[in-house]
Design brief:
elongated, about 150 residues, about 45% helix, mainly alpha
Amino acid sequence: MRRFKLPPQILRLVLLTLAIVGSYLIARAFLTPASFGEFGWYRGEALVELRSRPPVYAGKQACDECHSDQLQKLAKFEHQTLSCEACHGVSREHADNPDVLPVKLTGSHCIRCHEANPSRPKWFKQIVVRDHYSGKCTECHVPHQPSQTP
């Protein structure tokens, strides 16, 4: 009886596939961090690294210490669910030291949320910037009371 012999091109493909899979497994063993998989598909050490970073966001509570009147106005209108830092930018330094001024509002902050986008719900107020007023949003709108005019 004749012994089965693989054609040489098939043998080369099988060897190449084994080499690629073997290289992948070896690289994976060396390059995967030891804490990978500790919390699902995450590195366990990532939490320690993130916790060691200094916080940059102050939060609404820090704003409430000095700007409670603005927060009370804001609580009655559409922007009540927004964080102050969504528009004014990162404010931890300002909260720690009032002499450091927060970012001033510009029209681009408003456009980030209110530029017309078909993926947003129909009830969400949207504009097409080139058809809308080209000046500053705050000339016609009061951000802390968006349904009122100045």
